[in-house]
Fold these 3 entries.
Entry 1:
Amino acid sequence: MAPLVRRTWSTRGQTPIFYQRGGSHQKVSCIGALVVPPGRDRLHFYFRLHPNRNINADRALGFLCQLLRQLRGNLLVIWDGSGPHLARKVETFLYRHLRLYLEYFPPYAPELNPVEYAWSYLKKNPLAQHPPTALSALAVSARRSGQSLQRQEKLLRSFLQHSHLFFCASDRILLNQYSIELGI
């Protein structure tokens, strides 16, 4: 739970002091999706936090189920090839949900995933220099920062543009379905 410390300002002669809890291996794992609707008029950012847990296939599938409940039409999910994404449970889940399509990023290409830019932004801006003393404080701060990011459409759009992942208007698959980039 050590904070990411960045350069800061202070009064001359007064060194800023951050108090933190050392020796703790507690964490908050996140799973998120940047959703591009068919009209491409508005972007949405969905995320779920898992305090002190790793993201496994069951948690990834729970997140996909929630997205299926909230979004209508066909869904194209683009995600990386991490272990939970390649699990057998995911494969059987796809056979039961025919409106869900999966595509994978090339191996180790985080620069193509716009959700990675969202995580980087959250870590380096609102959560930087925030020394949590308890796991619950870290979870509350991460949730608040993620909810703030959900309301910043221009910033979400910049993540998509910076990723060099483009959507062609002539692509017939993307015209009739949502496109979702997932990041863990």
Entry 2:
Amino acid sequence: MAMHRRTGLIAVGIAAMLLGALILAIPTLVDVDRYRPELISYVQEKLGKQVQIGRLSLTLFPVSIHVDDFGVKNPPIFPSGYIVKIAHADAALDVRALLHRQVVIKSLTLDNPVIHLTSDPDGPWNFENPEAKASQRAFPLGVISKVEIKRGQLVASNLLPSDAQGPVFFEAHDISCELENVNLIGIISPSSSSVDGQGSLKASRLSLGAVDASNLNSKFQLANRQVFFTDVKAEVYGGSAVGALFFDLSGKNAAFKTDAKFSGISVAHLLASFQNGRAKMTGKMEGDLALGGPIEHTARPLAGIRGKGHVTVRDGEVPSLQLNANLMKLVRFNDLGPAKENPAAFNMISTDLELANLRITSKRIDIDGYGVDIDGSGSVNVDGSDELDYQGVAQITTPQGFFTRTFARFSGATVKDGKVSFPFHVGGTIASPLFSKVERVGSQ
């Protein structure tokens, strides 16, 4: 009896081993790669674009299709290149759906995807398929419960009216992202009005125009041809920023909007990102800023943005505009006290900002320098000319001697409690500002 039991156990063990070996052998016996041409043809028909797939393979635990070297090429109206290239993708399939001859992807992992989004001046984006309908019949994959992106890159740009490639206006690198309920057909269909995915996103570097941010963390949502970055936290030029970023891709011109609060930003590093901005100012900046506008099909896609905010810069220098040195030339006073410090330095600059038509306007500027206080207003062009037009009243905070006060009065200045003040104007350009005294009638 014991012998029969032992023999039965051995038989069961051998059968289990054979079954296990068979299961492990199935992926090699089922050569899914032979179906690659049919799959390419099918996906090309649904996307309306050329598709490449390097290799297909199958695993059973879990049941997954593995895709190597996947790419979707730009449609003919766009320059040659790829909308997306993915080094490796894993799609976990629903076994019960397979038994009913249906393909349902439970989760999708994309490794090293590189995405290039391009907008044509007539409106369409390169990833769109105007023939696609937001239904499972058009592309029977349904909504994917989970999509994970590892080490991704995203680059967005416009074509110029000549259909030549325009400059990049947005890019993100080393992206890691986890999305839920992703609707692929909704993303490629211009008529879709669905929520096409939401989750969290991280990126080691993100750029909007000339402004860079690093180590970004945010929540992320795709919906109605719109992209939302919320609860954004990032490092920006040695400081930090929090806020939100929004893109609308539904119009002929894409548009964006951002609201941010920031602190500890190095002004020198920030300005170095802009043409003619290097070595123009130092200090640490804090404040808030709201920007937005169309992303135009021109060589300067962000030229139409508008915005407003308030910034404060502390403990810095403006080498090209030496406040105290300019005041000395204008009034010839000698008893400067603290103004004998670095003539380019200041304790604090606080100002409001309004950006429109490539011009930054400030209605109230407060500058606390070494021995100099300034209240002013004005504007600067940021269209490349960098023209300055500022005016205000400067006061020497240290009481001056009798002869200095007398000379100042004859020069059109006001003297109160021994302190000299007079109106001024700053013209010229950011690189070569011209500081001049404004004549006024009357003195005290």
Entry 3:
Amino acid sequence: MWTSFIGFLASGKSTCVYLLSQGTRQPAVDLDAEVARLAGLDVPEIFRLGGVERFRSLELQALEELAARRALLLATGAGCVESPRAVELLRRQGVVIWLDAPWEILRGRLEAAGARRRPVLAHLGWEGLERLYRRRQRIYAATAHFRLRSDQADPATVARDALLRSLFWRRQRRRSAA
């Protein structure tokens, strides 16, 4: 079963997956890296040459290729939930955990990380990015099995909480199947 992480830019998805992979030895995949591998280009180049439509198409292709893997820790891209097919795949493959934080925290993290390199920020600007954040909150909420605040604890604690939620979800699922 997969443990997939969704959430906005800078919510901690990749960090959480990395920490869980180190602690559990489960295979980990960053979906953006898979998309770049498929395209033979980095993410900004994909957006520059093919736009968001090309990126979403490659993202779905990467997810479909990964679907054959049974156990996986997956850090999705922030917009993965925009595709109903992607949401269906994530939920069918296992538990989906939403890492959430207030806009002000995420903006601060993005600024500290030099977010100007992010294609979506270059395209939308800060105001547009905040509107996108607000709109996606509803989609994340509808997609996730669990929501974890990623701004109230250190990354290792968030990863531990995610692991506990994932184990709980699996146990509940086995009970309901029996």
